[in-house]
Amino acid sequence: MRNLGAFFDEHLDKKHHVNAVSRTCYTQIRNISKIRQSLVNSTLTSKLDYCNGLPYGADQPAINILQVVQNTATRLITKTPKHAHITPVLKQLHWLPVNRRVEYKVIVHVYKAMNGQGPEYLNNL
Hints:
Elements: E1 2-3, E2 6-7, H1 15-49, H2 60-78, H3 87-93, H4 98-114, H5 120-123
Antiparallel strand pairs: 1-2
Helix pairs in contact: 1-2
């Protein structure tokens, strides 16, 4: 018998309930694992990319802090071991390292300003 999501049998054996909860949890874990890359992209990557032109010219220790965040997210998505080299994994995901992301953002803004596609205050420069 099922009551409020809990299963009971005539012997009050908990095995059926435990199996049902376990099965449901593993289904949820499997669903989460399928969307973990999109979760990381929608939350962490967007934070790393927001105003990422600002660190341009920053010292390397400051950039390294952001790189460690990106590396951790990469390892989460790909299940890469902590001490494995991360560069090939970044290439596999088609992700630029943080310092290159910063440079790319600046280059895109300069290109847009030079071609009249940027904000008016930049186009006039």
